[in-house]
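Dear H.,

Thanks for agreeing to be a second pair of eyes. The structure we're designing against is below in token form, covering all 614 positions.
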């Protein structure tokens, strides 16, 4: 069959399958149908905003307006297809923030700035993340309560994790920890690549347990990944929550609506000003009960400061009238990671060319199976370094996850947030010509620091709502973070040196052929695996996990660093809450999408209860 005809056939079959599985598309509320007043206005239709909109409109007496700056991305083929995750940051569905790193990360980055990915579409970052479903550790939430977030202990939040979840995986999970009737489908990576299976055996060989359910009784050990994927399709909060709700008459959704600020009357939020699609004329809509910020750790902080809610000095610098002097944008936390890339000795992983082959596309189009039906991150592990052990900590301080898909320059460049010079250097080191993308076969073991001590901030660039904010994460400003990540990196190296990996690796001078060798040669003189050299490699190559939190931190009334209380109301103000990852007192032990959804589930019940009698 002619290859072009084959692609046409696959396209037709895919379209028919999508229409069958996905049903009708969204329709925005028109300007003419927009009401002057709603009970609730939700700013941001991301991982939290979609949950809130769906849950609040379960009460037919509540009217809700959901505003989203981005488009509906659910019909985009890359969004639907899990393996498209690596290319999504390069699309219009990404805010494309840039973070100032103050000289960190050596000579191979974009100078002083690195990309920060955040979803700009219905579903927010759940529309372009790697779909890993990780709740965190029970002690994360107990610590939240100990820090002043009363009512947010693990026993308080577990029911909301279960309420959200519809577990459809094939693994033997701890039943008491999982839900089976929620909107959010959770499944397992079922068919592991030979290289991934070997890495699991290697982890066990060097002393780590295999754990069937890291979202259950214990988080520790190595596991197959739990995904938010349903029948081979990304299951974002847009699909899980918003789509089943969008026909409700009490819910209006507007995409491509850019919020300028929350409008305040004294200390009360009374509505929002925003720019509707395709116009630079602001519109005001009133909120009868509450405005709810769900624009994410960067977006919520920015809009609040534009509204006069934030650090006094920051607001005065931009001539913004001060409504409330609060530490908005401070306490920024993020998981940072380093990658151990290595070459395989044979066909033990997956290449992008194979994933895009005719048989793969047919399998996916007809049955929702095959390489395209997974993000490729099919294994993860949670471990303790010597630092956590010495402190007798009850939580992991490092997460590892494994990706054994290789061969595409663009995929690698976008995924790692690195520039083309880095990608080309790695490929040249491994003997790969740019035109031979299927020649290189390798794996990546990512090491992530779970509890960074460094803190950053988000500031305004100007008083224009269209200017991106200034983001300074201050990675490694606390040196302990670099030391912990170094030890996590060493664990990943130990896995590649285990006997279980021998036949799977291409070696050079007795060592696995590591992709970071150019950095060792550039920065290090002598022992390439000394602590000093590894730290230099980490500083030169580490990058964000997209897990930005805590810029509107939740805490007790006497906590000067808190922006919201345990009820998520902004301190000292009325009619205004924040419900997204920005309220986390500390970042959780793992990927942050699942706990963000939990926060929105719990907040929905809190809001319903607060207005039950009114």
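And this is the sequence the design step returned. I haven't edited it by hand at all.
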């Amino acid at each position: 069959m002619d290859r072009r005809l084959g692609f046409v056939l696959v396209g037709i079959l895919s379209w028919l399958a999508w229409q069958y599985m996905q049903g009708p598309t969204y329709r925005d509320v028109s300007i003419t149908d927009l009401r002057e007043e709603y009970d609730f206005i939700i700013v941001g239709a991301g991982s939290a905003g979609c949950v809130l909109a769906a849950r609040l409109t379960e009460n037919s007496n509540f009217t809700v307006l959901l505003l989203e700056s981005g488009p509906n991305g659910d019909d985009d083929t890359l969004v639907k297809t899990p393996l498209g995750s690596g290319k999504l940051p390069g699309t219009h569905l990404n805010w494309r923030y840039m973070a100032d790193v103050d000289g960190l990360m050596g000579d191979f980055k974009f100078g002083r700035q690195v990309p920060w990915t955040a979803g700009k579409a219905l579903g927010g970052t759940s529309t372009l993340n790697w779909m890993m479903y990780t709740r965190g550790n029970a002690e994360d939430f107990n610590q939240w309560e100990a820090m002043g977030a009363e009512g947010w202990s693990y026993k308080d939040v577990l029911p909301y994790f279960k309420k959200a979840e519809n577990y459809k995986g094939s693994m033997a999970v701890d039943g008491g920890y999982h839900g089976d009737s929620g909107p959010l489908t959770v499944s397992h990576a079922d068919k592991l690549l030979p290289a991934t299976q070997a890495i699991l055996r290697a982890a066990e060989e060097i002393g780590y347990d295999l754990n069937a359910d890291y979202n259950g009784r214990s988080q520790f050990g190595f596991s197959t990944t739990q995904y938010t994927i349903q029948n081979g399709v990304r299951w974002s909060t847009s699909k899980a929550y918003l789509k089943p709700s969008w026909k409700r008459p009490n819910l209006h959704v507007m995409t491509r609506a850019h919020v300028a600020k929350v409008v305040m009357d004294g200390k009360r939020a009374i509505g929002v000003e925003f720019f509707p699609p395709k116009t630079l004329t602001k519109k005001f809509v009133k909120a009868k009960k509450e405005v709810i910020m769900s624009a994410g750790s960067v977006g919520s902080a920015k809009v609040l400061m534009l509204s006069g809610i934030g650090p006094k000095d920051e607001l005065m610098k931009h001539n913004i009238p001060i409504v409330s002097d609060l530490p908005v944008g401070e306490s920024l936390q993020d998981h940072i990671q380093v990658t151990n890339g290595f070459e395989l000795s044979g066909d033990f992983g997956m290449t992008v060319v194979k994933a895009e082959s005719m048989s793969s596309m047919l399998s996916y189009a007809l049955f929702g199976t095959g390489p395209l039906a997974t993000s490729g991150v099919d294994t993860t592990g949670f471990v303790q370094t010597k630092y956590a052990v010495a402190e007798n900590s009850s939580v992991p301080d490092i997460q590892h996850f494994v990706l054994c898909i290789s061969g595409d320059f663009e995929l690698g460049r976008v995924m790692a947030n690195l520039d083309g010079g880095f990608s080309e250097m790695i490929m040249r080191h491994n003997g790969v010509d740019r035109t031979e993308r299927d020649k290189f076969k390798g794996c990546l073991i990512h090491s992530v620091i779970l509890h960074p001590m460094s803190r950053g901030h988000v500031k305004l660039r100007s008083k224009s709502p269209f200017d991106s904010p200034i983001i300074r994460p201050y990675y490694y400003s606390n040196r302990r973070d670099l030391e912990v990540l170094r030890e996590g990196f060493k664990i990943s190296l130990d896995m590649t040196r285990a006997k279980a990996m021998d036949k799977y690796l291409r070696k050079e001078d007795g060592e696995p052929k590591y992709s970071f060798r150019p950095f060792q040669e550039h920065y290090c003189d002598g022992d390439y695996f000394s602590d000093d050299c590894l730290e230099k490699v980490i500083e030169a190559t580490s990058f964000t996990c997209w897990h930005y939190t805590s810029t509107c931190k939740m805490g007790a009334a006497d906590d000067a660093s808190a922006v919201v209380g345990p009820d998520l109301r902004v301190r000292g103000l009325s009619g205004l809450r924040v419900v997204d990852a920005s309220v986390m007192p500390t970042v959780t032990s793992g990927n942050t999408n699942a706990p963000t959804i939990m926060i929105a589930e719990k907040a929905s019940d809190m809001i319903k209860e607060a207005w039950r009698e009114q």
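Two observations from my side: The chain has 18 helices and 28 strands. The longest helix spans residues 3-22.

Warmly,
E.
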